Amino acid sequence: MSDDHDNEICNKTDNRPFADILDAATSRRKVLAGGLGLAATGFFASNTVLAGGWGESEHREGFRRHRKLIDFEPVAVADGNGPWPTISADYEYQVLIPWGDPLEPGGPEFNYPPNADDQTKQIGIGHDGMHYFPIDRFRGYRDDDWDDDRHPFRRYRWRRGNWHGMLVINHEFGTNPHVLGKQSPESLEDVRVSQHAHGVSVVEIKKSRGVWRTVKSHNARRIHVNTPVTFSGPVAGHPLLQTPNGNIPLGTVNNCSNGHTPWGTYLTCEENFNGYFGATNRDTVWMPTAAQERYGFSETGFGYGWYNFDRRFDLSDVDYVNEENRFGWVVEIDPMDATQKPVKRTALGRFKHEGVALTIGQGRRAVAYMGDDQRFDYIYKFVSADDYRHMLHQGESPLDRGQLFVARFNDDGSGEWLELTIDNPQLAAAFNDQAEVLTYARMAADILGATPMDRPEWTTVAPNGDVYCTLTNNSRRTEANAANPLAPNPDGHIIKWRDSDKHTGLTFEWEIFLIAADTHGTEDTFSDPDGLWADPAGRLFIQTDGGQKDGLNNQMLVADTRTGELRRLFTGVAGDEITGITVTPDRRTMFINTQHPGNGDPSVTNFPAPLDGVTVPRDATFVITRKDGGIIGS
Question: Matching Pfam families, A to Z (predicted)?
């Protein structure tokens, strides 16, 4: 099974590639001349540095007295490889919830290969995006990003929420050889094992005597591709979501990155959903529609073979026409109420969602930034129709009504947000209604002339208003040579922008924050940026997924966005991806993930088991803390 599907090209438009715009902007602004250090001298820095930092949290940590944000011993290049993780000498880690562990004490223990029923009660595979939701005695959830500092119980809740919470974690994918121990499923039972290993885990965790463990919970649950779900927003009830069979909507799959809301819910994002579909051609000869081609559907998918035994995923089965339209959405989950169905929020559009970074903009409107992770696809923004608190008070989700935009980047460092609305005559000529525009958001964005990007992945919003996005890579070359083994952009970059009108405007200014190739040949070398998080003090955490230089495993680095300093905090195991990032409210505990360690090959690593060359490696979460109890990243 190929894991290179993100590098395929589904965008056949002649919209101007971002590489052309970047070339012009690079020539004009010379952003490459200073590398990362330029981040402190561009147009964003004037607002950040002159103000003395990113916000009041910096004052609480004493950063106005001690300007150095990063002061840990970095992992050296020479130490960051092999079958076992490596962490800064100033830090330590604990392994938590590997694939197959029971959701809560007393559940079925891991046996390899798993069976389908057990897997519904166990942690899934392909650990990816996640979020920690603190639990307190007075209220089920609080989030320091949005909570009111004046609340009388704030100090107590900080203490309790730092050692007790719900952890919600995505399970993006697991290949058949890794999950089943064979190349292809041979029965519906095999398919169910694979299906139930995908999706989302909701677990309750608690720290006791210095160790984090899962605990019994009314709200622990697995959400997978056979879990009942519901749709909300403009596409709900539309014929595009109805099948001739009349089967109810089920499931979420290929859950990559994530987001969370100020009202205490989790957002999981469906990325490469197309790869689970295929065609047996038993009812009719399947020929892809233009929309199916644009979303990357094919006769064999990614090799999972589900469609051979589960009719829902057979594109040639006439009873399940439109089943594929039920995937590719942002899904909202209540971590504190397991009785609530997951809700697919269709106003945010359908594409290969890598993640969603939600912030509160002008007029307290909810604003979500999203990347579509494929070569030459786009960056999107959603703005709620009204004050999010008012909408919630009226019983309406802020994610059900609003405007969806796609980005166009200009040579001069400016940009426009182009609204994907049926009120635009260009779109009205191609679509029948707004539901079609949202279901085929990629095609609508093509028509409006959005800028094709180099695989937009994670987005994050800094407290000072800067928005960052990782662009993992985009080579476009057909063969390598000694002089150009990775040309032209195989290692990726990070872009940042700032919107007008506090995230709600129609224009923005952009800069290149970092070119990964500029770090090569240094002790801070990295490639293929993917996971991303901006903390409240001015640090940017960068995680990688791809071939690293100098024998390095994939890694997590920390950048000081004010000075350009960059240090490596953690490296994973051979063949894995480092992904997922969340923290406790005090930011003294961080959770990150290793995905597909050894690419599932026990001859590469047996993590987290001791090395024996036989035991199957298992995706897992790391709990990271400073040895001196300090803020993570400092």
Answer: PhoX
Please name the residues in contact with 182: beta carbons below 8 A apart, sequence gap of 6 or more.
Answer: 176, 190
- Asked whether 318 and 244 are in contact (CB, 8 A), the reply is yes
Name the residue among 468, 476, 566, 472 with its Cα closest to residue 510: 468
Name, in order, each residue with C-beta under 8 angstroms of 82's C-beta and a sequence gap of 6 or more.
553, 573, 574
Rounded Cα distance, 545 and 226, in Å: 29
The pTM of this model reads 0.91
Residue 87, SS3? Answer: strand
In whole angstroms, how far apart are CA 489 and each of 16, 383, 475, 485?
Answer: 16, 32, 5, 11
Between CA 282 and CA 245 the distance in angstroms is: 16
Strands 230-232 and 343-345 turn out to be parallel
- Please check whether residue 231 is in contact with residue 343, taking contact to mean a CB–CB distance below 8 angstroms: yes
Alpha-carbon dihedral sign for residues 194, 197, 198, 199: positive
The two three-digit tokens of residue 241, written as one number:
């979501």
Residue closest to 361 by CA, chosen among 340, 379, 380, 387: 387
Query: Does residue 524 contact residue 566 with C-beta atoms inside 8 Å?
Result: yes
560 vs 48: CA distance, rounded Å: 12
Tens-digit pLDDT profile for residues 348-403 = 999 999 999 999 999 999 999 999 999 889 999 999 999 999 999 999 999 999 99
Residue 360, strand partner residues: 366
Give the number of C-alpha atoms closer than 13 A to the C-alpha of residue 5, restricted to the C-beta side: 22
Tell me the residue type at 118: D
Distance of CA 599 to the CA centre of its chain: 19
- The residues pairing with 358 across neighbouring beta strands, listed in sequence order, are 368
Q: Which helix (H) or strand (E) holds 256?
A: strand 255-260
Residue whose entry in the numeric block shows the structure tokens 């987001």: 259
Q: Bridge-partner residues for 329, per DSSP?
A: none
Mean pLDDT, range 172-186, rounded to an integer: 98
User: Are 116 and 146 a contacting pair, CB within 8 Å?
Assistant: no
In this predicted model, what pLDDT tens digit does every residue of 501-548 receive, in sequence order?
Answer: 999 999 999 988 998 999 999 999 999 999 999 999 999 999 999 999
